[in-house]
Amino acid sequence: MLGRLWGLFSKDLAIDLGTANTVVYLRGSGIVLREPSVVAVYQNGGSVRQVLAVGDEAKRMLGRTPGGIQAIRPLKEGVIADFEVTRAMLRYFIHRVHNRHRLVRPRMVICIPSGITPVEKRAVREAAESAGAREVFLMDEPLAAAIGSGLPITEPSGSMIVDIGGGTTEVAVISLAGIVHAQSVRVGGDKFDDSIVQHIRRKFNMLVGERTAEQIKITIGNAYPNGAVHKMEVKGRDLVSGIPRTFVISSDEVREAMADPLAAIVGAVRTTLEHTPPELAGDIAERGIVLAGGGALMKNLDALLREETGLPVTITEDPLSAVALGSGRVLDDMDLLRRTALAL
User: Fold this and answer.
1) pLDDT per residue over 111-148, tens digit each?
2) Which domains are delineated in the chain?
């Protein structure tokens, strides 16, 4: 009886709980929230932490907070690194999409990397339950991305999806609503940013923050040379003098900085192809590889994978929303939900 009462006040949610961003799909309304997975907390010496801001407002505080205030990214490499802060973030997002009603206990589908451990899965489930979910389903991110990209996952044919998020890259071959083979590597947008920070430190003897590195990646980053070289003026702190100054970095240097994480993604794609049954490999040769996730927006990444594999490579129509859209669609199809998600 109480569960039915909660259901009257709650609409089912599908959540792409990402390292960089959280996207929430509300059943009957579509995507209603897309905000950074960042929480600003205040801690004054003791163990109790007070949440000050979540999402966009908290991200603006990254690298700019005074003592006692921390801007925390509670998920690292696709998994929960800070349980308490993740729970607070989920509770905030749930109440926000339900117009801050307190009497809400939605059913939730949460997307997770395919390679995480049972302990990490249990942490996601417990965080969602303690944040207010009445029932939790976990769904592999590559399956959700494939559904959101419009791939025919229920057919007896092979589809290949590469979902590049902030913390992980998921590569999977899917057939008959199941994953035939998958590779999950803990490389994504954050690793690109960190590689740029480290390269600038080594080559220019300058220190830049993660937000600056992300801006460099977005503005002039590219995965494959196309003849044009772009340059960007960057502000940072000189590691020798300690004085802020400006320097110029080129797109070729950014590509050099990102060489290792790019090689890890290419390696995961190759390994997955090597483990694909011949019949499904033929389908992939015809249909090609589909890219999803924020990392799919990296300039010329599709050209790099096309060069390395010799296969057609396309970017899904809305790569940033593919996982949330896919998990949201299964909320309307209970049969597909039972086939693709695990109720806990």
Assistant:
1) 999 888 899 999 999 999 998 888 899 999 999 999 99
2) 2-34+76-143+323-343 (3.30.420.40), 38-72 (no CATH), 151-315 (3.30.420.40)
- What 3-state DSSP class applies to 227? coil
* CB of 290 closer than 8 Å to CB of 149: yes
Give the span between the Cα atoms of 165 and 59, in whole angstroms.
17
Report DSSP letters for 9-75, one per residue: H---EEEEE-SSEEEEEETTTEEEEEEES-EEEE--SSS--EEEEETHHHHTTTT---TTEEEE--E
Q: How far apart are the first and last CA of the chain?
A: 21
Phi-psi region of 13 (alpha: psi -120 to 50; beta: other; left: phi over 0): beta
- Contacts of residue 34, defined as CB under 8 A and 6 or more positions apart, other chains included, come to 21, 22, 23, 24, 320, 321
Q: Is the pTM of this model over 0.70?
A: yes
